[in-house]
Amino acid sequence: MHPILARRDRLLLYLAVWLAFGALLAAVIAFEGDTSFAWAAVYAVPLALLLGLQSLSCWYLVQVLPPGETPLARLASTWLGAGFVSLAIWVAAALGWAWLLRTVAGDALSELEPAALTTLLLFAGAIGLLVAVLGHYMLAAFERSVQAERRALELRVFAREAELKSLRGQLDPHFLFNSLNSVAALIGTDAQAARRMCLLMAAFFRKSLGLGGKQSIALSEEISLAETFLAIEEVRFGARLRKRFDVAEDALSLAVPPLVLQPLVENAVHHGVAHLVEGGEITVRGRQRDGLLELVVENPCDPERPASRGAGVGLANVRSRIETLFGNRASVDVDAQPDSFRVAIVLPALPVAG
Questions:
Q1: Can you say how many angstroms the Cα of residue 112 is from the centroid of all Cα atoms in its chain?
Q2: Kind of pairing, strands 280-289 and 241-247?
C-alpha cells in the first residue's frame, strides 16, 4: 500500500499541500484573468487535487528507479516520458474543466485566452509534478531509513535472545554440578542427609523447570527458589548455615529475570559460609524505591580463605544477563571486603509480563 494512503496524518498533510498549491494557482489565474479569486479557486483547487492524485503513482516509479542504482540516462528518460504523459492528461482535463465552467458561468470565470491558459497550466503542472517526484524520493529515503533501523533492531533482539538462551543454559548445569558434588560428599557419611538433599534438589528443579522460556518471573517465585536452594545447602552445613530474607511486601510482585538470585546465594555459600568454621548468615534483601527494584545478597567470608578455584560463572552470568536485558537501566555492584561480600542489583521496577 502507498505509504501516504496507509496513514491518515500523512494523507491529510499531502492533501493540505495540494490545496495550498491550488490556492496559489487560483491567485495567479485571478490576477492574470481579471476574475474573482472565488471563481478562480473553483477552477484551480479541483485541478490541484487531481494532480495530487495523479502524483501518487510516482511512488511506484521511485521504487523501481532508485537514484543511486539506476543509470542516469534511464532515470532521466523514464521520468521525462512519465512526466510528459501525466502532464498531457492533466492539461487536457484542465482545459475540459475550463470549458465546462465557461459554459456554466460564462464571463464570471476567466478571460484568459486558451493559449495563455494552456501555457500557465503546463508551467504549473510541471512544477507540481517535479515537487511531487522529489517529495516521493524523500519519502522513499525516509522509509528505507526506518526499515534499516527496524532490521538493525530486530538483529539486536535476535542476538540478545541468543545470548540470553546461552547464559540461561549455563545455570542449571553449573548448579547441578555443585549439588552432585555435595551429594557425593554426604553419601559416605550421612546417607539420610544425602537422600533428603536429592529430594530437595528434585523440588528445586521442578520449580525451575518452566523458567527456561520466560524472560521474567515475580520476585516471590525467585525468593522461593532461593529458599529451596538454601534448604538444600542446610542439609550439608547444618547449623553453620543461617539465612535471613528481608523483602518488602510491595516488591514481591515485581518482575526479575529467572534464577537471578540463585547464583548469588550459591556463591555466598560456597565462597563465603563454607570457609568459616562457625558458619555465617546469608542475607537477601529486596526493596522498591523511586521506580527501581534493589536486590542485595550479602554474606560473611574468611579473610584468609584460599583463592577460589571456580570459574566465577555465577556472578559473571548474572552480570551478563542483566546488561543484556536492561542495558544502562540496570546495574550490578560488587562490594568485596576482607570479611564480607555484598552484591547489589538494581533493576527497573516493572510488573511481570503477561
A1: 58
A2: parallel
* Residue 50 and residue 86 in contact, taking contact as beta carbons nearer than 8 Å: no
For the cut 50, the answer to whether the pLDDT of residue 202 exceeds it is: yes
Helices 37-55 & 114-187 angle (0-180, nearest 10): 40
- Per the structure block, which three cell numbers stand in for 225? 527458589
- Domain boundary (129, 151, 173) is at 151
Residues 208 and 123 occupy one common structural domain: no
Q: Same structural domain for residues 110 and 198?
A: no
DSSP per-residue letters across 108-134:
GS----HHHHHHHHHHHHHHHHHHHHH
Q: Helices 191-208 and 219-237, interaxial angle, to 10°?
A: 170
Please check whether residues 213 and 145 belong to one and the same domain: no
Query: Is 227 in contact with 259 (CB distance < 8 Å)?
Result: no
Residues 221 and 136 in one domain: no
For the stretch 281-316, pLDDT in tens is: 999 999 999 999 999 999 999 888 766 655 456 788
Specify the DSSP class assigned to residue 329: G
Are 208 and 310 members of one domain? yes
- Is residue 354 within 8 A of residue 293, CB to CB? The reply is no
Any domain includes 183: no
Q: Is 103 found in the same domain as 26?
A: yes
Q: What are 245-271's pLDDT values in tens digits?
A: 999 999 999 999 888 898 899 889 988
Q: Domain of residue 324: give its range.
A: 188-348
* Residue 116 covered by a domain: yes
Q: Is residue 65 helix, strand or coil? A: coil
Q: Give the residue from 66, 88, 83 showing the smallest Cα distance to 131.
A: 83
